[in-house]
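Q: I'm writing up a methods section and want to include an example of the input and output format. Could you take the sequence below and give the corresponding predicted structure tokens, formatted cleanly so I can copy it straight into the document?
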Amino acid sequence: MNIWQVKSNFHDSSILLLKDSNEQSFHTAKKIQKMHAIYVNKADFPSTEKAKAHSKLQAFCYKFQVSNYLLEQLWALSHTRRMRVYDAILNSLDVMDTTDDELMLVSLHLENFLLQSRAFLDFYLLYLLSILRTAYEGSISREKFQKQLKISDTSKAIWLSEYFETKVFGNTDWSGMNPNDWGTLLVSLRDKVAHRDRLKYSFDGQEEITKGILHTWPTITEITYDRFCQYIQNGMFSMLEDISKQIYELEWIPGHYREDMWE
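A: Here is the clean output for your methods example:
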């Protein structure tokens, strides 16, 4: 196979993976956009405030979809490695270690996931401040966000403050399918990637491909990159669902998006 065939196959497989990941994130984004539209119209937002909130809405929805695609890339690389190891076992071949090229590729997708997911979180914090109708503009951080919530001092602001300190920047306990400190982990790792060096990886995971054969794939805190990022993504989705119910004063409806939702 020549390089042009490789590039063509890469293009086709990337498009298929993008369509698959968009199918998952599309419905979440559409629900939030619909709930947002209902809420700002009901609350009678002035046109300038409505435009400001809409801009932040579009930004965090886009970043959510991008991070979801990058997560699917990580899973695809991990699954490919699993299948190659499994085939080697079935055919009594030597099981090769993870190659340098594989390490570079998976590290590239991990770093991109962290950068895009952090951007999603930042835009979402700014969006929430615009929905609360604060006058805040500029960059955002956990501390700045909490300060603005304290200034707002509405029931929704108080609820958001508690939620973020317990479910996003909380302790290492778990809620459902994600740790309560997923936001802290995301911010910390993204800052290391952006301002220091590449993340240090290890191969100390305990995930088995088949009985007695471990999945030799780079890990963070003994969790493979793909699974670690999945936990982050789980936290992102849970946050969107939990907060949407409170902010928009509408029930979150599970399943695929439909035009007649909340009518």
